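Severity: low
Component: inverse-folding endpoint
Summary: output formatting inconsistent between runs
Steps to reproduce: submit the following structure tokens with default settings.
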């Protein structure tokens, strides 16, 4: 089975390992659920993906809006205090406890975008990947 294909994402991502423990809290907009802690898997100038416990996450579906609070990423990004995202996809296997969600930033400060792109550039340098081919598709 060949999983290689054309990359369709507009933005390239910086990835985090589970061991890095990059966490945040998600809160559905217009919902009274308590914040649920999640682990950030990747981040780009366009959005992020996270992993969460199905029993602690609020009920969500693609198209729902969430507030992501207190993303404590390594430098140069640093802490992202509060940003709104829209769920683009959910990977949910009923046999698993963990759920993966991919989200698009709805409103994020331009300064954070610049910091995210610096993080991606540093990962490119670390792993010897050409920056221009890694950051964006035109």
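Observed output (run 2 of 3):
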């Amino acid at each position: 089975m060949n999983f290689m294909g054309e990359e369709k994402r507009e933005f390239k991502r910086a990835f985090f390992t589970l061991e890095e423990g990059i966490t945040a809290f998600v809160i559905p907009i217009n919902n009274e659920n308590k914040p649920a802690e999640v682990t950030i898997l990747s981040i780009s100038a366009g959005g992020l993906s996270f992993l969460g416990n199905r029993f602690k996450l609020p009920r969500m579906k693609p198209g729902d809006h969430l507030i992501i609070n207190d993303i404590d990423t390594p430098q140069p990004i640093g802490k992202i205090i509060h940003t709104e995202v829209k769920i683009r996809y959910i990977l949910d296997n009923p046999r698993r406890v963990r759920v993966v969600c991919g989200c698009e930033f709805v409103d994020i400060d331009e300064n954070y975008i610049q910091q995210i792109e610096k993080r991606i550039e540093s990962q490119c340098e670390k792993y010897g990947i050409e920056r221009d081919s890694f950051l964006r598709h035109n």
